[in-house]
Amino acid sequence: MTIELSDGAVQRIQEIHRENPGAYAGLRVGLKDGGCSGYSYLLEFETKADEDDVVFEKDGARVFVHPLHLPFLAGSVLVWNDSELVSGFDLQNPNVARVCGCGESFDVST
User: Fold this and answer.
1) How many CA within 13 A on the CB side of residue 96?
2) If DSSP codes are grouped into helix, strand and coil, which group holds residue 2?
3) What does residue 16 show for φ and ψ, rounded to 5 degrees?
4) How far is the C-alpha of 45 from the C-alpha of 58, rounded, in Å?
5) What is the C-alpha separation between 20 and 13, in angstroms, rounded?
6) How many domains does the chain have?
7) Domain boundaries, position 11
8) Who contacts 94 (Cβ-Cβ below 8 Å, separation ≥6)?
9) How many angstroms from the chain centroid is the CA of residue 26?
10) What pTM does this model have?
11) CATH number for the domain including 93?
C-alpha cells in the first residue's frame, strides 16, 4: 500500500522546508471523522513522525501516514494545485466511493 507524491507536491514540501528550516519533518496525511459523507482529509505539517507511522519519501519530501488510515488512502496521489482561485494540496484517492455535495467530505469503499 503506497501513497505517491507528484513532482509539484514534492516541490511545494521542499519549499516549505526551505522557508521554515528545521520546523517541519514532513506532511501528515490522514483522515478525520466529519462532514456529511463521513470523512475529511487531515493535512498538516509535523515536527516528527510518530513511532508507528508509515513514511513515504520522494526527493527528501516526506509524508507520514498512520497505519490505520493507510487502507483508506492506498493508491492515492498527493498533488499540489496552484491556480488563480485555489492553491493547496489535493489527494487523488481511488478509494473514494461518494463525495458530499460541497466536496468537503467523502466516504470510501473498503
Assistant:
1) 18
2) coil
3) -65, -40
4) 16
5) 11
6) 1
7) 4-108
8) 75, 76
9) 11
10) 0.87
11) 2.60.300.12
Query: Based on C-alpha coordinates, what's the Rg of the chain?
Result: 14
How far is residue 9's CA from residue 103's CA, in Å, rounded to a whole number?
21
**If DSSP codes are grouped into helix, strand and coil, which group holds residue 103?**
coil
Question: Would you give per-residue pLDDT tens digits along the chain (110 residues)?
Answer: 789 999 999 999 999 999 988 889 999 999 987 766 577 889 999 999 999 999 999 999 999 999 999 998 999 999 999 888 889 999 998 888 777 655 565 667 65
| Exposure class string for 25-34: b at 16+ Cβ within 10 A, else e | ebbbbbbeee
Contact 41, 31 (CB under 8 A): yes
CA distance 15 to 96: 29
